[in-house]
Amino acid sequence: MRARDLTVDFPTVTLDTPMIEAARLLADQDLPGLIVIDERGRPRTVLPGTQVLRLAVPRYCQDDPALARVVDEAHADAFLRALAGRTVRECLPEEPRELPVTDPDATVLEIAALMARTRSPLVAVVGGGRLLGAVTLQTLLDRALAS
Questions:
Q1: Tell me, which fold does domain 3-146 have in CATH?
Q2: For residue 8, how far is the Cα from the chain centroid?
Q3: Which is it for the CA torsion 36, 57, 96, 139, positive or negative?
Q4: How many Cα atoms are found within 13 Å in the side-chain-facing hemisphere of 8?
Q5: What local confidence, expressed as pLDDT, does residue 48 receive?
Q6: Strand pairing report for 101-102 and 122-127
Q7: Domain named CBS: which ranges (predicted)?
Q8: What is the DSSP letter of 79?
Q9: Are 1 and 37 in contact (CB under 8 A)?
Q10: Fewer CB within 10 Å: N-end or C-end of the chain?
């Protein structure tokens, strides 16, 4: 089985997409992450859903989970408002990470190794200089376990 056999159409966002819109896309389509494309439509990075949470959850709550418990429920339920007014560009890590991108001929093991190494729940598949879609962790596991 190759990447081309597992690739599905996948929504993308740009660097200028508002973060709250990106979060809505994640939620509305039940996605594990988003592919961020550049002005030429090529993958620039993958933004995992957990990274979106990391950006929205106050740092003090991440550092000390006990502090998250003392925040009243009304404020706790509104933590995603921290994303308001921010773009995807502003929320990306300063240090570029390895881009989880492969070609259509990659094997299942190559894709799994790339996901594990980059800690990405999806891998962008690029062929002929254009984005063909993505392989998600769920699709990879479903197909690999069915074999």
A1: CBS-domain (3.10.580)
A2: 15
A3: negative
A4: 11
A5: 86
A6: parallel
A7: 6-67
A8: G
A9: no
A10: C
Domain spans of the chain? 3-146
For 131, other C-beta atoms within 10 Å of its C-beta total 19
Inter-CA distances, 81 with 20, 49, 73, Å: 8, 16, 14
- How far is Cα 33 from Cα 72, in angstroms, rounded to an integer? 29
How far is Cα 106 from Cα 66, in angstroms, rounded to an integer?
44
The answer, as to whether pTM is greater than 0.70, is yes
Answer yes or no: are the C-beta atoms of 74 and 109 closer than 8 Å. no
As beta bridge partners, residue 18 has 87
Q: DSSP letter at 119?
A: T
**Would you state the pLDDT for residue 112?**
94
Nearest residue to 130 via CA among 3, 47, 48, 37 = 37
Picking from 8, 9, 15, 12, the residue whose alpha carbon sits closest to that of residue 91 is 15
